[in-house]
Design brief:
8-stranded mixed sheet; alpha/beta; 19% strand; 401 residues; 6-stranded mixed sheet
């Protein structure tokens, strides 16, 4: 194939993130973000990464996703990277929910679009925006392969014992209620990168991946295949997150309805947007929470302790699930940058094998690195995630075939 460039699009309800990569050497050619689509204060931020290009910004109303992608195409064209380039091989789209139907990257056609639309009830915040981005890109380049890379796909290898909830099977099947998991492109990339850091093949390594950002999830990866993950039907289950509660007794919902007089929408907003760290202490930025802890703020300390307690429970549980653990990998914004979180999450787990070297943990960097002492039975690593590269690589591999 002579065309080697892939445009990666991540379409949100009011935003489009994008990167253009050349897959000959995985070089980024341009990155950008369109935000506040549909508002008067829309903004496009575009950065060409070749020939010392400088970031450009434009502000003003961008009516919809079609106008947003047209503006992106214009900015790329200014750098000689336009969407009409014969070097563009495909457009890769991040799609949050693929259900059980999609276990790998898929060339998009009308059948695929219909299935993504059918899954909207289990991903009402994400799949509609993903569909809009796809249809807009198809209109701009109808001749070009468009590929969907699903957040849920990496987790479809979970056994039924991990994927099913213990509720009536007929009810669960009728409404597609099961554990799907999310952040799959990140977990796939980081698990492989961790194996490479250890100098071993992915199929020979068992890894616990901790994707800790504003959204947070853990996965147990055995030999390159996910066998359990912390998020479930939606991204609400699992770890304490920036604004999401994570695991909770479901009866709390009934209690809030009956005793608190709250509606389902009220509770949905509470658990997804007003819980987690922000609900516990008013901040969802781990840097600010750490600063407040240093000043003796008890609410910040309690929020941090709850966050770490839940994280340790999942590490311990996945040690049990995997049996043999070769590495624990921290990734995403908090996982890559918060040394305090990494140290606290592993502290006390030394009998299980992992340990953190304080000096190594304090070092900051953009490359995968070990932070465990030499000879630790379980390696502890910091592995920067690269979901866009993962999407581009999967997209290119598919269209190249």
């Amino acid at each position: 194939m002579t065309a080697t460039r892939v445009l990666v699009l991540n379409s949100g309800s009011s935003s489009v993130k994008y990167q253009l990569l050349d897959m000959r050497d995985s070089t980024r050619l341009a990155v950008g973000l369109v935000e506040r689509i549909g508002e008067q204060g829309s903004r496009l931020k575009h950065t060409p990464l070749t020939d010392g290009g400088e970031t450009r910004e434009r502000t003003g109303a961008i009516a919809d996703h079609a106008a947003a992608l047209k503006a992106v195409a214009e900015e790329l064209a200014k750098d000689g990277l336009g969407l009409d380039s014969p070097e563009l091989a495909a457009i890769g789209h991040r799609v949050v929910h693929g259900g059980q139907s999609f276990t790998e990257p898929t060339v998009i056609d009308e059948t695929v679009l219909a299935e993504i639309e059918r899954l909207i009830p289990v991903a009402p915040l994400h799949n509609p925006a993903n569909l809009t981005g796809i249809r807009t890109a198809q209109a701009l380049r109808p001749d070009l392969p468009q590929v969907a890379v699903f957040d849920t796909a990496f987790h479809t290898t979970m056994p039924e014992s991990a994927a099913r909830y213990a509720i009536d099977v007929e009810t669960a099947d009728a409404h597609r209620v099961r554990r799907y998991g999310f952040h799959g492109t990140s977990h796939a990339y980081v698990s492989r990168a961790t194996a490479a850091l250890l100098g071993r093949a992915p199929e020979d390594v068992n890894v616990i991946v901790l994707h800790l950002g504003n959204g947070a999830s853990a996965s147990a990866v055995r030999g390159g295949r996910c066998v359990d993950t912390s998020m479930g039907l939606t991204p609400l289950e699992g770890l304490v997150m920036g604004t999401r509660s994570g695991d909770m007794d479901p009866a709390v919902i009934f209690h809030l309805m009956r005793v608190g007089g709250m509606s389902t929408d009220d509770i949905d907003t509470l658990l997804n947007k007003k819980s987690g760290l922000i609900g516990l202490c008013g901040d969802n930025d781990m840097r600010e929470i750490s600063r407040r802890m240093d000043e003796g703020d008890e609410r910040a300390k309690l929020a941090f302790d709850i966050y770490i307690h839940r994280l340790k429970k999942y590490i311990g549980a996945y040690c049990a699930v995997l049996g043999r653990v070769d590495a624990i990998a921290f990734t995403a914004g908090v996982g890559e940058n918060a040394a305090r979180v990494r140290e606290a999450a592993v502290a006390g787990l030394e009998p299980l094998g992992p340990a953190v070297d304080a000096a190594l943990n304090a070092v900051r960097g953009d490359e995968p690195r070990l932070i465990s002492p030499a000879g630790a039975r379980v390696a502890v690593a910091v592995v920067p995630t690269d979901e866009e590269l993962e999407i581009a690589a999967q997209t290119y591999a598919l269209v190249d075939r």
